[in-house]
Write a structure and sequence with these properties.
alpha+beta, four-stranded antiparallel beta sheet, seven-stranded mixed beta sheet, 6 helices, Nucleoside Triphosphate Pyrophosphohydrolase, 13 strands, 27% strand, 23% helix, 274 residues
Length: 274
């Protein structure tokens, strides 16, 4: 997993970003949609993540107003767009769309930035922004060369849309129970950055999509910006509530750890040493 951390770095201004935690109910319980980033990616290459990306200037364009189910929200519009681009899913109001239509639309987007607007307008559809529920907000540490201020949204996957990775920014995708994702991570089969792990840990406490959305409503959206600190012969990312973080209260919805410590090329959740 590629990161570029440096102690004492002043830190560049973070770019706005949006991430979507897609969940669904199946007979066996709750599942979450995961994509694996390309190993060539400059940021978190090879890690498993939720679909997401930067907020583009066009996401805040007022002309979106007739094509969204709520007021124009650049982060939510970016979340819908990124879900289409990286997961081949799209939340719409006023009708339905199927996987083949979305796959073709995703291909059009690679050469036509206005393809999504045209697609919605031609079919009398709107982006269903109300389907996205703010879950958390993570800001990349100042020690990282590339920084993002990412809003995480929780959303129930649209019916009839199985999802698929794009084979460009992402190289694989799968649906799995949150506990299974944690098992794979604990076994060293996949890599996760702390925000992804913390979110999966929260999902593992939920049995249904309704419980996930309830957790979104109940939680705080105060930003979580880890602080890089030394810990013995390794490094740690102290979270709000850790003794070495400026923010004294925890902002994790499942506060099982106060920091993530780099051990054997993995960030492991731990409590601060006493």
């Amino acid at each position: 997993m590629k990161l570029d951390l440096e102690m004492g770095r002043d830190g560049v201004a973070p770019k706005d970003a949006a991430t979507v935690v897609l969940v669904r109910d199946v007979d066996a319980g709750l599942e979450v949609f995961i994509v694996e980033r390309s190993k060539q990616s400059r940021f978190m290459g090879g890690a498993i993540v939720f679909p997401g990306g930067k907020v583009d200037p066009g996401d805040a364009d007022p002309s979106w107003a007739p094509l969204v189910s709520d007021e124009v929200n650049a982060h939510a519009i970016a979340a819908c767009r990124e879900t289409l681009e990286e997961a081949c899913m799209l939340h719409v109001a006023g009708g339905t769309v199927d996987h083949d239509q979305l796959a073709a639309l995703r291909t059009r987007l690679t050469t036509d930035a206005g393809a999504l607007r045209s697609f919605l307008g031609e079919r009398g559809l709107k982006l269903d922004l109300a389907a996205l529920h703010p879950l958390s907000r993570w800001i990349t540490p100042t020690a990282e060369a590339r920084r993002f201020d990412a809003r995480f949204f929780a959303a129930v996957a649209p019916p009839g849309q199985p999802g698929a990775h794009d084979s460009h920014e992402t190289m694989a995708s799968f649906w799995a129970a949150p506990a299974e994702v944690l098992r794979r991570w604990e076994a060293g089969e996949v890599q996760m950055a702390p925000p992804t792990h913390a979110t999966i840990a929260l999902l593992a406490t939920c049995m249904t999509t309704a419980e996930v959305l309830a957790a979104a409503v109940a939680g705080t959206l105060e930003p979580i910006c880890p602080r890089l600190v030394p810990q013995g012969d390794t490094l740690a990312l102290a979270l709000p509530g850790d003794p070495e973080h400026d923010v004294r209260e925890s902002r994790l919805k499942v506060p099982d750890a106060t920091r993530y410590v780099m051990r054997d090329s993995r960030w492991l959740p731990e409590h601060a040493p006493r």
